[in-house]
């Protein structure tokens, strides 16, 4: 079931990205009240905000688990360090890339963030799985959107 949901989400996102890429060539009005300036760069900014929100939520969960003394301290400390790195390195680089409209700036930090989230789930599964999955998906979608900006430019 989870695979079919993931597959469906990927298809929906690909269709959305296709529609957005068409907008660069032909003006399309999706809704009378839509922002005419909305584009793939705006979608990228929304995803970076989503990454930040998910990283902060994961850190709050880590704090709660540590206060309750649930799980291995070393695993939680490792995840905390990785998530802090995402907040202070990957997210600012992604915002800089959006501001300069040069996504190559954030390529390394975003890939590192994706790997850090996967490492956290591997080293400390179960209690942080929902937060890890949300952040992993946010980072992954952000990477894909940034790749599309290079295509649609």
From TrEMBL:
Keywords linked to the UniProt accession: Signal
Highest taxon in the source lineage: Eukaryota
Name of this protein: Pectinesterase inhibitor domain-containing protein
Organism: Lupinus luteus
Signal sequence region: 1-24
UniProt entry tagged with the keyword Signal: yes
Matching SUPFAM superfamilies: Plant invertase/pectin methylesterase inhibitor
Keyword Signal: yes
